[in-house]
Amino acid sequence: MSKMTEEPGRPPPPVPFREAFVYWLKLGFISFGGPAGQISMMHQELVEKRRWISEHRFLHALNYTMVLPGPEAQQLATYIGWLMHGVWGGIAAGVLFVLPSLFILMGLTWVYLAYGDVPAVAGVLYGIKPAVTAIVVFAACRIGSRALKNNVLRAIAVLAFIAIFALDIPFPYIVLMAAIIGYAGSHLAPDKFRAGGHHGSSSDSGGAALIDDDTAVPEHARFKWSRLIVFAAVGVFIGAAVMVLLANTWGWQGTLTQMGWFFTKAALVTFGGAYAVLPYVYQGGVEQYAWLSGTQMIDGLALGETTPGPLIMVVAFVGFVGGWTREIFGPEMLPLAGAAGACIATLFTFLPSFLFILLGGPAVEATRGDMKFTAPLTAITAAVVGVVLNLAVFFAYHVLWPDGFEGSFEWFSVLIGVAAFIALFRYKAGVVPLIGVCAVVGFVYTLLI
């Protein structure tokens, strides 16, 4: 294709909406590895290979999504899609990032509820989990190598890791402290907090990018009060209209109505990604509303970890099981009831994410060169590297000691994980073939033991 054959040093030609649409659809089916793996995948494809966006612009967008509640990888895709092709580009990127995961999870949840344990699925998951861990570790290495340009930023990453791993400090407080350090640093030591990927850095990824460091902000991404008011009104209207429809049909205490209200609240407290909101979802879904059991919640998390899309898609599992167990359409229509619950949970979880990007994106683009705004975001990126490392440790523990330290050690998972990391780091293996090979290896291994 032309984007792969232009002269080195020159930006690629403009990307048609159709080409971007196909990429976002593909990403929705292959975005394994949680937020760290998904961000790494987008970086490798959009910054290094296709050069649709420069390192600096990519990190600036990533910094913004890191401080928002909600799934940062999905919001990053929405932001880049919006920057390239306006509102419809952002909506396409964000929806396609989630839609394949929704249908896959609904299918798997139906199998889970209708047929119980499936040994073949367990074997596939056994091989995928260590590969996912390797992807997260690899992502931390890649992001860290670009974001941690000096010892001050490295120290922030180390402190963030200690804070979340050893001191169990919630992620929002880590983000807040990093932002304060960055703001102070913009005055005391501005050179230490300049955003990574300044002019000229695009050469590291093969040449100038389509949206390069010094590319002007497109007209649709400029801040206008009229746009902000219209987008806010449309977003609130969509959410309110669906809630009114649900309340009129099933009453305020109806299962779907309560799901809509609960997942709206959950969407606004998901600072720090899916793991930060899981206790809230567990408390509401299991203890308060009894839509599912604690064991089912754990099984749903396992499915969410090993399917494409953001991990917060576990809300679709909760919604599906809740609609199924409450038999909201009667005992003869359980799959339809589950699908309705999953769709409502997904809609109200992700609607705020689109509003955050469409409302806040223009302000973020307008402040891209202002150290008062960029220095806190640079510090936050450094802190996120430490948090991603903590996520890798969390995954590794649950993969290698699934029954805790008192249980057996999964030595074969170590072999799969190490081999996957070497394939990524040394041989630049693609994530999709890697996941496929590891799934087959896990399936065969569980058949033999």
Short description:
The protein has 449 residues and is mainly α.
Cα-based radius of gyration, to the nearest Å: 22 Å
Tally of contiguous helical segments: 16
Task: Summarize the helix and strand pattern as letters.
Answer: HHHHHHHHHHHHHHHH
Total domain modules: 1
Pairing-aware structural class of the strands and helices?
mainly alpha
For the secondary structure, the number of strands is 0
Tell me what portion of residues adopts beta-strand conformation: under 5%
Helix percent band: over 70%
Low-confidence stretches: 1-6, 196-205
Rounded to the nearest angstrom, the distance between the terminal CA atoms is 46 Å
Shape: globular
Ordered list of secondary-structure elements with their pairings:
Elements (H helix, E strand, L loop, with lengths): L16 H14 L3 H16 L5 H12 L5 H44 L3 H29 L3 H15 L5 H18 L36 H26 L4 H13 L6 H15 L5 H12 L8 H13 L7 H33 L4 H30 L10 H15 L5 H18 L1
Q: Would you write up a description of this structure?
A:
By secondary structure, the protein is mainly alpha-helical. It has one domain (15-197, 226-449). Helix content is 72%, strand content 0%. The protein is built from 16 helices and no strands. It has helices spanning 17-30, 34-49, 55-66, 72-115, 119-147, 151-165, 171-188, 225-250, 255-267, 274-288, 294-305, 314-326, 334-366, 371-400, 411-425, 431-448. Helix 3 packs across helix 14 and helix 9 (255-267) runs parallel beside helix 13. The radius of gyration is 22 Å and the shape is globular. The N and C termini lie far apart (46 Å).
